[in-house]
Every structure is written in C-alpha cells, then in structure tokens.
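FORM 7B: Structural annotation worksheet

SECTION A. Query
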Amino acid sequence: MARSIPDLPAIVAPRQAEPKTKGDAMRVRRVVTGREADGRSVVVEDEQVQPVTVALFPGAEFHRIWGDDARPALPSDGTPPSAPSHFPPAEGYRFGMFAMAPDSAGVTTDLDPDEALAEIQHMLPGLIDVLEPDGAGMHRTDTVDFNLIVSGEVLLELDDGAEVLLKAGDCVVQNGTRHRWRNPSSEPCVMAVAQIGAARPPSKG
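SECTION B. Predicted structure
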C-alpha cells in the first residue's frame, strides 16, 4: 500500500543539487584534516559541499558534511567514513547544515506519493520514515541533536502546543523528543546540526 503524504509539493526525479547560484540559502566549505603515514598532519580535502535538495521540501537545503555509523577511531587519514542513512545508528554520529525556507514558500498540489517517497528515500535515506503521516512535520529520532541557529529564525514546536522562537546565536539540545520546526519569517533559517546516535528501549504496549 502506498503511503499518503498530505500537503506536500510535487516531486521530480532524484537529483543532486546544481552548483550554488546567487539566491541560495548558504555556501558550505568543508576542510578535512588527516594524518600521513609519517605522522604529519595535513589537509586532505578543501572543497564546497553541494546541498541535497528534494521537491518534497521546497527551498530546503541539506548539507551532509560528515558522519559515521561507528564510533570514530584515531589516527585518521581523513578518508570519509560510511554514513549512508540520514540519521546515525546508536554508535554513530552526523554533522551537517540545514536551511529551511519560510513557511510562505508554498506547495503545489500535483503530488505523486510514490515519486515523493522514491526521491526522498534516494536522496535522504530514512528521513521520511521518522515523519508522522498526519503530524505536519512532527517527528522523533533516536538521537541527541545539537542545533545552532546560524542565521534567520525558526520556531521549535513540542507537544501540547509548546513553542520556542529561536534566532541567530541560539542553540538547542534536542534529547530525542517529539518536535517539529517551522519558519514563520520571510527569510531562510540556517542551522548547524550535530547528531549523536542514542539507544532507546522498545515502547511498551
């Protein structure tokens, strides 16, 4: 049975974002260090990270900067570790940047749910799985998240209608709780996000 996705935009074929142009929310440069065989520390990578975009979330940009599905070990030669899914497992971690468009960006109505799921599962594996089908963006992950607002502002919504307005310089420690993000302003909001995988006991009942 196909999963329905209400109130979301039309989906196009899976793609990687084109090189950044004027008007995009942010540019992200990644500098990676490592250790040579003789023990010297060196820069092994210095390049722009292109964002992942999906039509399911118009105007959003996901910069996947670094991550691993296992606890890191040193020394490292700077080779990118394996991090295929959007969220880390209990022993893993993720680091990235996220830009959220204003709520007023709008959506289209000619959504094909099968194409929507195919694109987002291909580009951001596991992201759609945590979203509540009828929760308008509400979700919960088995992670401890450290979120720093870099620019713009965003509303953090929790259970029972609790809201916190966050602006540039504010940070959130998100302890695996049910929540969603909204951008009621007229400008994109940019966040730096570090996620540490955490163990959660199975639900009872």
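SECTION C. Observations
DSSP finds two helices and ten strands in the chain. The two ends are 25 Å apart (CA to CA).

SECTION D. Sign-off
Analyst initials: ____
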